[in-house]
């Protein structure tokens, strides 16, 4: 059984959307891991609370301080732990999101230039989705409209807002 060209392209688009979603999830989890490692601060012992005693009772010795006063017992030699090569932490998730946002806006600019006419945000979104690009949220058209609207502000903008969710290229 062979797929038609349209079916193959549809599957590729779906896979690209899934890949983009996975990339975002991976970047988010890597950020959480990095934050957790930074907060753990390896090498520092956790601060122990003092032992609570009843009033009038002498304070109990700290078990950790007693360990230093006793002679050390020899432990069996452990096998050496392999040293893992140092891996630089991944770029923050925000950097990946900014790159994705710039790619999305550049693609929207290409779509408008190729069409040669102003387009509604829904039309632009259809063509962006056909290229495998994604936007977070429940309403990607509204998210795209917001991004284009923000970039249409100011004199040096590439986009020009012509109406409700209708954009063209600035001349």
TrEMBL record:
<dbReference type="Pfam" id="PF05066">
    <property type="entry name" value="HARE-HTH"/>
</dbReference>
<feature type="coiled-coil region">
    <location>
        <begin position="5"/>
        <end position="32"/>
    </location>
</feature>
<keyword id="KW-0804">Transcription</keyword>
<feature type="domain" description="HTH HARE-type">
    <location>
        <begin position="102"/>
        <end position="171"/>
    </location>
</feature>
<feature type="region of interest" description="Disordered">
    <location>
        <begin position="37"/>
        <end position="99"/>
    </location>
</feature>
<dbReference type="InterPro" id="IPR007759">
    <property type="entry name" value="Asxl_HARE-HTH"/>
</dbReference>
<keyword id="KW-0175">Coiled coil</keyword>
<protein>
    <recommendedName>
        <fullName>HTH HARE-type domain-containing protein</fullName>
    </recommendedName>
</protein>
<dbReference type="GO" id="GO:0006355">
    <property type="term" value="P:regulation of DNA-templated transcription"/>
</dbReference>
């Amino acid at each position: 059984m062979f797929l038609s060209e349209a079916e193959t392209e549809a599957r590729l688009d779906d896979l690209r959307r899934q890949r983009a979603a996975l990339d975002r999830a991976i970047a988010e989890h890597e950020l959480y891991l990095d934050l957790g490692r930074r907060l753990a601060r390896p090498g520092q012992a956790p601060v122990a609370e003092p032992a609570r005693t009843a009033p009038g009772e002498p304070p109990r010795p700290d078990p950790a301080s007693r360990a230093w006063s006793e002679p050390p017992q020899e432990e069996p030699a452990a096998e050496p732990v392999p040293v893992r090569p140092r891996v630089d932490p991944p770029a923050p998730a925000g950097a990946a999101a900014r790159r994705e946002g710039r790619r999305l806006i550049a693609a929207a600019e290409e779509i408008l230039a190729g069409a040669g006419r102003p387009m509604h945000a829904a039309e632009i979104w259809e063509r962006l989705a056909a290229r495998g690009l994604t936007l977070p949220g429940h309403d990607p058209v509204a998210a795209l409209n917001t991004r284009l609207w923000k970039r249409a502000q100011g004199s040096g903008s590439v986009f020009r807002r012509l109406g409700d969710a209708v954009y063209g290229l600035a001349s």
